[in-house]
């Protein structure tokens, strides 16, 4: 049976909204990681058979199939195609799944999967242009804002504001420690940016984590979605800018080219979930991917569950009976940010490098997605 292997994985540092990457176009940003991932793998751009990128807000500079425009900006030959997909927050994770499925099917041997999002230059939701959901949809389902979904999850799982803020503060602590220990240095490609004075510098450190963040400081923030609720800007993911890319090959083609694999894709899953609660999908997606892999959660050495809102990983921890010391060990989106379309392969990139750094074997990634969906992926270090 064919195997799909990861031979290179890279990301930019994540910029805060209106931060270091505010002057950088999304297509230019995506081109940087596309160029870097082939250089790291030492693979000729001629060999790439497809580029699949995730991007959620496909408007303005992110419109017009940004996968194709970015690969052309990066100097790929014109015969290399590209396609852009939107599975909400899991878009680039789904790009990874589609790429691996193309390789498993025998249609392709070398594919780049990745994602990009500039939430500064293309604000989240701007592509809706004030259009409301179809009445045919709202007659069947209670369609609410994700923040209200997070409030309902916190209520259903009996998660207090104190619990959420403690979790969020710990995300910042872990992220700051990871940066101090150099955990992200190898996976990040520096990006030349300019400040408002026109001066240039290399941006290569995630700028979301805040020193001095504690549960007490977070408790002073106002709730955002519900007056007597628990969700604040401090226990939700940060709006961010960034890009990431992973180069996938069939094991046979990697061997032919003498390219050393970093990891292999063991199993993939995607599920639909309640579109009102919306963010609980990682629970079912995790159970499904473990079943497909023939593995248990105890076999996993590390796992990432995207911190869209603090109730999401906490509800997941409760329901799958996971070990909290293995979850988001280098911080999550509450501290490091969540550049929507880029997050999936960003977290896979972090996980691949962690597995090698810590001499671990298996990693699991699960991401909740808008309108009630989730992807999960298991990878194994090689």
TrEMBL record:
Organism superkingdom: Bacteria
Active-site feature positions: 89, 338, 368
Domain Thiolase N-terminal: 4-252
Record domain Thiolase C-terminal: where: 260-381
PROSITE patterns: THIOLASE_2, THIOLASE_3
Keyword annotations of the record: Acyltransferase, Transferase
Gene Ontology MF, one: acetyl-CoA C-acyltransferase activity
Family of the protein in this entry: Belongs to the thiolase-like superfamily. Thiolase family.
Protein name: Acyl-CoA dehydrogenase
Upper classification of the organism: Bacteria, Bacillati, Bacillota, Bacilli, Bacillales
């Amino acid at each position: 049976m064919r195997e799909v292997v990861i031979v290179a994985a890279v990301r930019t540092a994540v910029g805060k909204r209106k931060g270091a990457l505010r002057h950088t176009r999304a297509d230019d940003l995506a081109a940087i990681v596309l160029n870097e991932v082939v250089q790291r793998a030492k693979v000729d751009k001629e060999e790439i058979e497809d580029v699949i990128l995730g991007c959620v807000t496909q408007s303005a500079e992110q419109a017009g199939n940004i996968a194709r425009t970015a690969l052309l900006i990066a100097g790929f030959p014109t015969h290399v195609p590209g396609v852009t997909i939107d599975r909400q927050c899991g878009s680039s994770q789904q790009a990874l799944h589609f790429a691996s499925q193309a390789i498993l099917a025998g249609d392709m041997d070398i594919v780049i999967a990745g994602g990009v999002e500039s939430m500064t230059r293309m604000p989240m939701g701007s592509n809706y242009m004030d259009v409301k959901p179809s009445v045919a949809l709202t007659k069947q389902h209670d369609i609410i804002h994700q923040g209200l979904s997070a409030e309902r999850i916190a209520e259903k799982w009996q998660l207090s504001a104190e619990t959420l803020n403690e979790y969020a503060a710990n995300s910042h602590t872990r992220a700051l420690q990871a940066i101090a220990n150099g955990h992200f240095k190898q996976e990040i490609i520096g990006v030349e940016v300019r400040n408002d004075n026109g001066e240039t510098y290399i941006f290569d450190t995630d700028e979301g984590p805040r020193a001095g963040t504690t549960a007490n400081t977070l408790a002073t923030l106002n709730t955002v979605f519900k007056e007597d609720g628990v969700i604040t800007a401090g226990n939700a993911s940060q709006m961010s800018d960034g890009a990431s890319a992973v180069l996938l090959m069939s094991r046979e083609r990697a061997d032919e080219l003498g390219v050393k694999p970093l990891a292999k894709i063991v199993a993939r899953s995607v599920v639909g979930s309640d579109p009102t609660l919306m963010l609980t999908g990682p629970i079912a997606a995790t159970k499904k991917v473990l079943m497909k892999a023939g593995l248990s959660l105890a076999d996993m050495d590390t796992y990432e569950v995207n911190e869209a809102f603090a109730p999401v990983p906490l509800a997941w921890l409760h329901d799958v009976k996971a070990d909290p010391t293995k979850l988001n060990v280098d911080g999550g989106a509450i501290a490091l940010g969540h550049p929507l379309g880029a997050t999936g392969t960003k977290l896979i990139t972090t996980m691949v490098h962690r597995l090698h750094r810590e001499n671990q074997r298996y990693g699991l990634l699960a991401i909740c997605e808008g309108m009630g969906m989730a992807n999960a992926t298991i990878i194994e270090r090689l």
